[in-house]
Structure formats: C-alpha cells, structure tokens
Amino acid sequence: MKENLERVLIFDTTLRDGEQSAGASMSVEDKLLISENLNDMKVDIIEAGFPFASKGDFEAVKKISEISKYSVVCALARAQFSDIDSAGEAIKKAKRKRIHTFISTSDLHMKYKLRMNREEVLQAIKKSILRAKRYTNDIEWSPEDASRTELDFLYKTIEIAISSGARTINIPDTVGYAIPSEFSKLIKKIRKNVANIDKATISVHCHNDLGLAVSNSLGAITEGARQIECTINGIGERAGNAALEEIVMCLKTRKDKLPFYTNVNTKKITSVSHLVSSITGFSVQPNKAIVGKNAFAHESGIHQDGMLKNSNTYEIITPESVGLSSSELVLGKHSGRHAFKVKLQDLGYSFNESKINKLFKSFKDLADKKKQIFEEDIYALVDDEQNLLKKRAIDFLGLTLSCGYKSKSKAKISINYLGKKITKECDGNGPIDSIFKAIKKLVPNNASLVLYQVNAITKGTDAQAEVSVRLEEDGITVHGIGSDVDTMAASAKAYIGALNKLILKKKRQEESKESFFGQTKQKVDKHVI
Ligand code: KIV
Ligand code: ZN
Q1: Ligand with smallest separation from the Cα of 102
Q2: What are phi and psi of 316, to 5 degrees?
Q3: pTM of the full predicted structure?
C-alpha cells in the first residue's frame, strides 16, 4: 500500500479485445512488440489473445509467454475443453500465467446464442474452471453480458465459479449498456449477495457503446473492483473498451477522491499509444483525452496567458507525466547521437544500442530534409522503423513520379513482394490515382479504397505527412498509416500497409475457419462441455 492508497490491477486486453476492433489486425510480431512495451510499462496482466481462434493467435500467446518478464500472461477461452486446452498449452512457458474463461449468463444470450438453459450453464462454469485448473491456479471467470443478467442467477454463477476455483471474477458490461450509478451498484450488490466473494478479486470490463466505459470502470472501483480491463487508446469491439491511459491518469490525478494507485509507468503512455496506432492503422482523434494531439494544446489567448503565468491554471496533468517533454522543438540537423538517445529515453523508449544506431541514421536522413525535428516526428520515425523491421508480405522500396497541372500523372513503384523485387509503372488521374493503380498492378486485389486522409504531423511546409488509408474487400476492412516528408511516399506506404493487413487478415480468417471446423467435429466427439 502506498500512502494509504489501495492498488488497482491493470489488465490490458489490447491484444485480444483490442484486436477485435473492426479493421484492426496484428501479426505475431506486432503483438510481440506491443507486449514488450506493455511489460516495460508495468501492466499487471496482458490478455495476449484467444489461442483456439487461430494458429496466429496461438503462436502470439505462446511467444508472449516466453518473453514476458513482468506481466502475467493471460489467454482467453470459452467454456469448452478445446479452448481451455489450447489456452493452457499456449501459456505453458509463461513465468506467471492465467486462463480467462467465460460463458454468457443473460437470458438473451443463453437462449439465442448458446441455446443452453441455466442448469447447463452452471454445469459448464464448473467444468470449464476445473479443466483450466489443470494448467494454472490463476483462473479468471467472466459472466458474459453480466450487466443484462438476472441478478439472482448472476450471484449463483459467481458463487459456483469461485467455489470451483476462479480467483478473479470479471464483470463485463459486454454491450456498453450500463450507466455509472447502475454499474457501481451492481458491484456493490455482488459484494453483498455472493457469499464467497471475499475469496476473489473483482474485475470489470466495460465497453464504450454509450461513451461510459471509463466512468463505469471508475464507479466500479469505488464499490470494490480491484482490477480494470482496458486497452491502449480504448480500442476494442464496436466502440471499444475503457481506455487504459484514461483510467490510469484518472487514478493518478484524482487521488483526493479516488484513493488508489496502479503500478503503470505513465511516462510510457504516449509512446505505447503511438505504437498501437501505427500497428492498427487507427489514428487517435485529436481531442482524445491524454493521448490526443490536442490534449495539451492551448489555443485561446486567455488560456495561453494563464498557462504562461501558472500552468496549473489550465493543465491538470503535466505533459511530462505521460512521456511528452515540455519543449516542443527538440532536435535539429546538428544534434548528435547522445542528444538523440536522451530524447528517445525522455519519450519513454528503451532501445538497445544497435536499434538506436539505426534510428539515428533515419533521424539524420530526416533532418537533412526537414530543419526542425519535433517530438511527433520522432514518434513517427520510431513507428516507421519498427514497421520496417517486421516480416511483411510487401515492403515499399521506392517511388518516382511525374505529374503536373493538366498533365497525366505517371508513377513508377518498386516493392519487395514475398522476397522478390518488382517494379511497375502506371498512368493515372493525378498522382494518388497513378500510385495506387501501380500498386494494384504489382499486387492484384479487389479491395476498394474507402478512406484516404492526410494530416500534417507537425507545423510548417516541410512537415511530415501522415496518410491514413482504409481498404475494404469481401467484408474485411483494414487500415494503413504511412508517414514521410513526401506526401506521395507517405500515401504509398499507407496503401501498402493496408494491403499487408489485408493479406494477414485473410490468412487469419482461413485459420480460424479451420479451427472452428475442428471444433464442430469435437462437438460430435462429445469433448465439449
Ligand atoms: O465484452 C466481453 O464480455 C468480453 C468477455 C470475453 C469478457 O470481452
Ligand atoms: Zn469485451
């Protein structure tokens, strides 16, 4: 306990519920990179994936289990032996491991989704937890759609889960339906009416359909929840989950009303937010709390004046506490390796010397094109470099372009596709059209472009451009982000980034079809609970 504050555990589900966001897909390498950062950030539990869902998910959970030094590694499983065995196998090598198993408990879900009655669900809870105990004693259990579950039945399910061996009881507001007063009362009632509740930690998992995920989570803490499930940038199914950065900074900033603490190193918040955004292709809205570009910007004269006199006038948290430095302008063409390394550390990065050398070279290249290098440029540079280091189906190699007012545009693009360098040229109506058509010639696909957006990362005409691209093919949506001082190169990078995700996502879909087909066979074999 710190200064009479109670600890709240942070359970990050960016790699599981976060990856379920429409359009987000992460490779095994992406997940490893994020999990390393979550470990550095000192997140208590990482929900690394749903191993039964696909080979890729299994592989990611297995690898994260091998490298996680600080965080408990958790795998998700439905109340089925096949899922639980796969989860248990995937986390086998983790220093500290957890299985999170769940089943729906609301009448609506039981009737239409599970086609099971209450007695069958109670039996399934018991059997699933007993099965999970073969692999670990750290078992978390969730009644899916808890906030719409009939109360007496909910209490019964929780009691059985605890007596069967669950140590954490997670209460999900699966469809983001609850409002704060109602959700905190639910936690209070659970504490009052479940006889053995003192033997488990209460957790909550709130979705953001009504924009209440963070408020509901905080309300739950005041009534006894001591674990919060959340994601970086609030990504997740539909409108997403409670945002980790908001939960953690609320607890840090309002200790007067919320006497709790977390172990999260808040200085890593900005860099991890950038990493997740660049991997998923989901840009963070500018006014997003804590990690939005404008979260610490003061536009009006009155506010700027107040800030100059005393920053407390309009700033309730310092930019430094989330890993932003106070000075906007950071480095320039003449900055040396040491200054660059210190800046990376200030921004919450902890890279080895060889990675710093690589990044320093990219920094020098950028400084040749751009006089002033801002923090945002450094984040973009690190994201870009991390993407380059990954194994991807397509790598962007180069672009030459001729275009002009009232003249045809011609783009020549080179890529590395499945290990082979290929180049194609294409005409188009304007530079973007010719670039995207050339890429389509190189990697034939039926994807349609549904969003193309350019933002300047910093100020000035020499600012780096950040381009976002969204593609859709056969009901699959993917996002790509690319940045460069050359907007056309940034566009090519974004389009290629999205195509890489499309390839990955299609592969995942195939794998999960195989997995779930296998399960149908198992059902016939009566291996299912
Ligand atoms: O939203 C939900 O109910 C979930 C469960 C698996 C906890 O994600
Ligand atoms: Zn969820």
Answers
A1: 1
A2: -95, -15
A3: 0.86
Residues with CB under 6 A from ligand 1: 17, 102, 142, 144, 170, 172, 174, 205, 207
Distance 17 CA to ligand 2 centre (A): 6
Instruction: Judge whether 376 and 458 are in contact, CB under 8 Å.
Output: yes
91-118 CB burial, b ≥16 within 10 A, e <16 = beebebbbbbbbbbbbeebbeeebebee
Residue of the CA atom closest to atom 1 of ligand 1: 174
With H, G, I as helix, E, B as strand and everything else as coil, classify residue 352: coil
Ion ligand 2 neighbours (CB, 5 A) are 17
Query: Which residue, by CA, sits nearest to atom 8 of ligand 1?
Result: 17
Task: Give the contacts of 397 (CB within 8 A, at least 6 positions apart).
Answer: 414, 415, 416, 421
pLDDT, one tens digit for every residue, the chain (529 residues): 567 899 999 999 999 999 988 878 788 999 999 999 999 999 999 999 999 999 999 999 999 999 999 999 999 999 999 999 999 999 999 999 999 999 999 999 999 999 999 999 999 999 999 999 999 999 999 999 999 999 999 999 999 999 999 999 999 999 999 999 999 999 999 999 999 999 999 999 999 999 999 999 999 999 999 999 999 999 999 999 999 999 999 999 999 999 999 999 999 999 999 999 989 888 899 899 999 988 887 666 777 677 777 788 878 899 999 998 755 557 888 889 998 998 888 888 888 999 999 999 999 989 888 878 888 889 888 887 776 666 789 999 999 999 998 888 999 999 999 889 999 999 999 999 999 999 999 999 999 999 999 988 877 888 889 899 999 998 888 888 898 999 999 999 999 999 998 998 888 787 776 766 555 433 433 344 5
Dihedral class, residue 331 (left if φ above 0, else alpha if ψ from -120 to 50, else beta): beta
Q: Considering only CA atoms, which residue is closest to atom 4 of ligand 1?
A: 174
